[in-house]
Write a structure and sequence with these properties.
Number of strands: 49
CATH architecture of the largest domain: 6 Propeller
Low-confidence stretches: 7-22, 119-131, 373-380, 688-696
CATH superfamily of the largest domain: TolB, C-terminal domain
CATH topology of the largest domain: Neuraminidase
CATH class of the largest domain: Mainly Beta
Shape: elongated
Number of helices: 3
């Protein structure tokens, strides 16, 4: 009697699995500069006058991106670590840090036994590296936990203090960043930031009693891309109570003791400098009762301070000096007013980020790209496509080392641009093929769903005015002749082509009317075969995508505030009817690059809906230190954030094939550390009166 029933159940599950497999899809996107970072945490001794490449030690293991470290001694191993064979000699160094391995941000504790981590050691680097032993433990992240950013961690007993972005605010263009405490022995997590408040860069006082944060309070985010204009708040680490503002206009706090902390701000003279705040001991703490003064002098940028607990008159800072394109870690003596260089003596052409000091004040830690070092060369092997964890069932998510990716109709191939250059690769990373060399600047790609191997793209400068010479071109990437055909005539910034499901028409944006509007032309003959203007107005309609059933065209537009730089998503029927707004992240917000799901019921896009997740100065240069990948149903429901980081994510594409969620490596033979420090830190000859060169 049970055999037929079991057979029916088996058939039912086979059908369910088949439906799931058929509906499984993939989303691919790019992150500006991220593939070049390859950060690891390094350290140098403070108590020696001889700084060489041999005295710098790499503390993390070279796996993925490792950053924002914190030395700790207050570790309860019985509650944190269940491995009875853990290596933990009395002289071991304990490093807590953020790592992006395994597709999401996690917090790790490494216990490192290395003779070179002691001040009295004089042995060479090569000997030290062979004698190092490491015990590595993931403290938070991975498994069944929600995908989120987890930043600037501190370990106090068995409580981990950190920034996370796992709770949405429900309000567009407000940051999800908040400070949390997780008791590692129980997993109990407590939010320390008040609801509706964004906190960044937490620092725990030496006693563990207080935590200081850079906070935007309830002001929200008004689009700052350089300095967030945060204030410094202090509260009890145990439960977040007793919260009080101690400094107006400050970021990146670092405690000297329970009553003294350093912070940074950009002064009225334009220079980023480090300041000290002294809290009163015998009266209530308010902004007016806290004494603040500037510590580092103008004439150079000094920021992200780290207090040297063993010497209250010394602070480690990152600097950007006149004539240099790189930030370096230096020590500043408050009494003598003198700097002592550290990292420039080791790696002068590398950027060094966010210093932190060991508990015994013998070493300074920081992160930099591991591609720099003794040979000064970049990495040759890296990830072409990185698999990211996501809470979205049935979807694999990938970051690609390229821009404007798009899937072929069957999902087996991906086209992308290298800005410049156009390339095609199989979705498993094989068959990489250059279509156009770096002599041609292409952007935005789209496949013709009915003509195999036919790709449309734009050729010409990006971010250009309406009358700039940019044209739509088409090429058959399977042909022996890779010459292209120009479909638009006369320039006028024709870009962002998208092909109708029947393969007959191409929608694109053009500036031919003096404004960027949408047009539809013949997919084979181009505008010579027929041209229809779809939208018309004194605004910018751009970044269009055609729905799989052919009924809708989604696009980004600033029509709600022309020329403001603010973009929302809209939809319209190809015949010009049915116009409606899809989503707007908020006043002055930016939501771009819509792409329909294969079933046409949802879209993926990039947006500043979740604002910024970290102080921009703590990262390398990004034109927009915000922007995450979201999905949403066409009716506006089920808004889901897919990426959580402090980088700029963009240009997503949604393909019909489920790609196995595993990293795809490649060797491109190029320098992988070729990213810039924040361009707005550049010091020009007329640098005065807050006139700072800005990028973007």
């Amino acid at each position: 009697m049970n055999k037929p029933l079991n057979f029916i159940i088996l058939i039912f599950f086979i059908i369910i699995e088949s439906i799931s497999a058929d509906s499984a899809t993939s989303i691919i996107f790019t992150t500006l500069g991220r593939s070049r970072y390859a950060f690891d945490i390094f350290s140098l001794p403070l108590n020696t006058n001889t700084i060489t490449k041999q005295t710098e030690l790499q503390l993390t293991d070279g796996n993925s991106v490792n950053f924002n470290g914190h030395f700790t001694t207050s570790v309860n191993y019985k509650t944190l670590i269940t491995n009875p064979t853990v290596i933990n000699p009395p002289s071991a160094t304990h490093l807590v840090y953020v790592s992006e391995r395994n597709g999401s941000s996690s917090i790790y504790l490494d216990i490192i036994s290395n003779p070179g981590l002691h001040a009295e050691s004089t042995r060479s680097r090569s000997v030290l590296e062979t004698e190092s032993t490491r015990s590595q433990h993931r403290l938070l992240g991975g498994g069944g936990e929600r995908v989120s950013m987890k930043d600037r961690p501190s370990l106090v007993g068995d409580n981990l203090i950190y920034v996370s972005t796992h709770e949405e605010t429900g309000v567009g263009r407000t940051s999800w960043a908040a400070v949390y405490s997780t008791q590692l022995s129980t997993g109990l997590t407590r939010r320390l930031s008040p609801d509706g408040v964004a906190d960044f860069s937490p620092a725990v006082s030496p006693s563990g009693l207080w935590t200081a944060v850079a906070s935007s309070g309830e002001k929200g985010w008004d689009g700052e891309t350089e300095e967030l204009n945060t204030d410094i708040y202090v509260f009890l680490t145990e439960n977040g109570s007793g919260r009080v503002k101690v400094v107006e206009h400050g970021g990146w706090p670092s405690w000297v003791d329970d009553y003294t902390l350093y912070f940074h701000r950009r002064g009225d003279d334009g220079w980023w400098s480090v300041y000290v705040a002294i809290l009163p001991k015998n009266e209530s703490v308010t902004v007016d009762s806290v004494l603040t003064r500037r510590v580092t002098p103008p004439g150079l940028h000094s920021f992200t301070p780290a207090a040297v607990i063993g010497d209250k008159n010394v602070v480690a800072v990152a600097t950007r000096r006149p004539g240099s394109d790189y930030r370096h870690i230096e020590l500043y003596d408050i009494v003598s007013g003198s700097f002592r260089e550290l990292t420039r003596l080791v790696a002068p052409r590398a950027n060094h980020y966010n210093p932190f000091i060991s508990p015994d004040s013998s070493r300074v830690g920081y992160h930099r790209c591991r591609g720099y070092g003794n040979n000064g060369k970049g990495l040759k092997n890296d990830l072409f496509m990185e698999s990211l964890r996501t809470q979205k069932p049935g979807i694999s998510l990938f970051r690609i080392d390229g821009s404007f990716p798009s899937f072929s109709p069957d999902g087996s191939r991906i086209a992308y641009v290298g800005l410049p250059g156009l390339y095609v690769v199989n979705s498993d990373g094989s068959g990489h093929k250059e279509i156009f060399s770096e002599d041609i600047t292409a952007f935005s790609t789209a496949w013709n769903p009915k003509r195999e191997g036919v790709i449309y793209t734009s050729m010409g400068p990006t971010f250009a005015s309406e009358d700039t010479s940019v044209d739509i071109i088409v090429v058959n990437v399977d042909s022996d002749d890779l010459s292209y055909t120009k479909l638009t005539l006369g320039g006028q910034n024709n870009a962002f082509p998208a092909v109708s499901p029947d393969g007959k028409w191409v929608v694109f944006r053009s500036g031919r009317s003096g404004h960027k509007n949408l047009y539809i032309m013949d997919a084979i003959e181009g505008e010579k075969g027929g041209l229809t203007q779809l939208t018309n107005g004194p605004w910018s309609d751009t970044m269009c995508n055609w729905s799989p059933n052919g009924e809708w065209i989604a696009f980004a537009s600033d029509r709600h505030s022309p020329g403001s730089g603010s973009f929302a998503l809209y939809m319209i029927h190809p015949n010009g009817t049915g116009f409606r707004q899809l989503i707007h992240s908020g006043s002055a917000g930016r939501t771009n690059h819509p792409w329909f799901s294969p079933d046409g019921k949802s879209i993926v896009f990039t947006s500043d809906y979740s604002a910024v997740s970290a102080e921009p100065i703590s990262n390398p240069h990004s034109y927009q230190p915000y922007g995450d990948i979201f999905t949403m149903k066409l009716d506006g429901s089920e808004l889901t954030r897919l990426t959580h980081n402090s980088y700029e994510d963009g240009t997503p594409s949604w393909g019909p094939k489920y790609m196995s969620p595993k990293d795809i490596e490649w060797s491109v033979g190029e320098e992988k550390c070729s990213f810039e420090d924040c361009q707005w830190l550049a010091i020009t000859s007329n640098h005065n009166d807050a006139k700072i060169k800005c990028g973007g």
